[in-house]
UniProtKB/TrEMBL annotation:
InterPro entries reported for this sequence: MATE_fam, MdtK-like, YsiQ
Membrane topology label: Multi-pass membrane protein
Signal peptide: none
Keyword Transmembrane helix tagged: yes
Organism from which the protein derives: Paenibacillus endophyticus
Keywords linked to the UniProt accession: Cell membrane, Membrane, Transmembrane, Transmembrane helix, Transport
Assigned GO CC terms: plasma membrane
Membrane-spanning residues: 12-33, 53-73, 85-108, 128-148, 160-182, 188-212, 238-263, 283-303, 315-334
Name by which UniProt lists this protein: Putative MATE family efflux protein
Compartment(s) where it occurs, according to its Swiss-Prot or TrEMBL record: Cell membrane
């Protein structure tokens, strides 16, 4: 038990996740910085397209997220064989969904961009980028299932090492294809797209090899025909509210980007640059939230509910300290950092106007992430889903449109509504966690199981 406890400690889980997320941040920052050398329009297209891709990932994140929580719970309850079967099904189903999305995005990228109100002069660039990167959506689907499964076995280092390699290769290919270095063709934005797909392909291969030996019994290729109806039902039971939750976030973000596109390409570019800076703020906090989800799911599966309850608050307070410091650093140096991405004074001014508001945004986001993930870890996914449906759509989207577009407050009004949404969901998650609904249920089940074991021992 001691070895398992060490493997599933908050720090041992969190630091590799942080390194992985930090490298993804560097990847995104390098992308944005290099693409900005093409044009601010190219940056706007990449930011817009990435919101689209995130929206579509919800179609397979349902399976991956539900499977991840169940894998940690099954390992906590010493049921490794079920954990293995769940992981195999997650990869297979995610791949099938990813193939369908890849075909759709490859065939009609321009039509999708037009429906989402992308400014007309940006559509030719969007067609190129969406068709190539979107055509590789199957890689994102499989990567998500593989890395989530591996991470929830307690091995957070494997995805981290993969991210290191992916980061290095992506920066190299970006530089080569954008600027025509080392004898590569000078493809500009198309080169960024090709670089992204190549790196994801290499990362998928590495993660797949790692995945095959992640469980007590090695996975073979013929095992991918496995399908357990009951276990898949458990995945969907936990996963579908997570999918709805995630879809609420990404689709509302996509709508917010659509609102920004109505305001103009400068607002769209400014929000894309601020996304990069915000990622730095909450990255370590988010890694703590992901780690605490894995640990609480493991403790919950093992029946150690008192430890699970206190751990959520510990993670929240640590995360609050981290994100507040990071947001303050961004507030102090944000103007200089934005100047690295663009020399357009209007875009920089728009970004600078959001730096103070970011100080308010990040603590609310941390409370929401820590306690929302804790609720998900014990299977209370429907509650987090309903809070998302209520707050994201009414506050972060409908109210944002009214304040930002109808009342003319623009980017500031939209951002204020995003802040309000985070605090509403964080407060609701806090109240639910303090109520201990699912923890009390697990505690009762554990007491009943102990009584049954004791009675059986006495009869024997």
């Amino acid at each position: 038990m001691a070895l398992t406890d060490k493997k599933f400690s908050l720090w041992m889980l969190a630091w590799p996740i942080f390194i992985e997320l930090f490298l993804q941040f560097l990847l995104g920052a390098a992308d944005t910085l290099m693409v900005s050398r093409i044009s601010d329009d190219a940056v706007a297209v990449v930011g817009f397209s990435n919101q689209l891709f995130q929206a579509l990932t919800t179609l397979f994140i349902t399976v991956a997220s539900g499977a991840g929580i169940l894998i940690a719970q099954k390992i906590g309850s010493r049921n490794g064989e079920d954990a293995r079967t769940i992981a195999i099904m997650a990869v297979t189903v995610s791949a099938i969904i990813g193939i369908g999305l890849s075909v759709l995005l490859y065939l009609i990228p321009g039509e999708i961009a037009a429906i989402l109100q992308l400014p007309e002069h940006l559509i030719p660039l969007a067609e190129t980028y969406i068709s190539i990167v979107g055509g590789g959506m199957v890689l994102i689907a499989v990567m998500s299932a593989l890395s989530t499964s591996i991470r929830n076995t307690g091995n957070t280092k494997g995805p981290m090492y993969t991210a290191i390699g992916m980061n290095v290769v992506h920066v190299f290919f970006n530089y080569a294809f954008i600027f025509g270095a080392f004898g590569f063709p000078k493809w500009g934005l198309m080169g960024v797209a090709v670089s992204t797909v190549l790196c994801r392909l290499l990362a998928t291969i590495v993660l797949f090899i790692m995945f095959l030996s992640s469980f007590e019994r090695t996975i073979s290729l013929r095992d991918f025909s496995l399908f357990n109806r009951k276990l898949f039902g458990d995945i969907i039971r936990i996963g579908w509210p997570l999918g709805v939750n995630m879809s609420c976030w990404v689709f509302t973000q996509l709508l917010i980007f659509t609102f920004l596109a109505m305001l103009g390409s400068n607002e769209l570019a400014a929000r894309t640059y601020m996304n990069t800076l915000e990622s730095f703020c909450f990255m370590l906090g988010y890694s703590i939230a992901l780690a605490v989800q894995i640990q609480i799911a493991h403790l919950y599966g093992a029946g150690r509910v008192k430890e699970a309850y206190g751990l959520a608050f510990r993670a929240m307070w640590i995360g609050l300290g981290v994100v507040t410091v990071n947001a303050f650093l961004i507030f102090l140096f944000g103007k200089q950092l934005l100047g690295l991405f663009t020399d357009n004074k209007e875009i920089v001014a728009l970004g600078v106007s959001l730096l103070g508001m970011n100080l308010l945004l990040q603590p609310g986001k941390m409370i929401n992430m820590a306690l929302g993930n804790a609720l998900n870890a014990v299977g209370d996914t429907r509650y987090t889903m309903w809070t998302s449906v209520f707050s994201m759509w009414l506050v972060a989207t409908a109210l944002a449109y009214y304040v930002g577009i109808a009342l003319g407050w623009g980017l500031i009004g939209i951002y204020a509504c995003m802040i309000l949404d985070e605090y509403i969901r964080g407060t609701l998650s806090l109240l639910r966690w303090r109520g201990k609904k699912f923890l009390r249920k697990a505690e009762s089940q554990e007491i009943a199981a102990m009584a049954l074991r004791k009675q059986t021992a006495l009869e024997a």
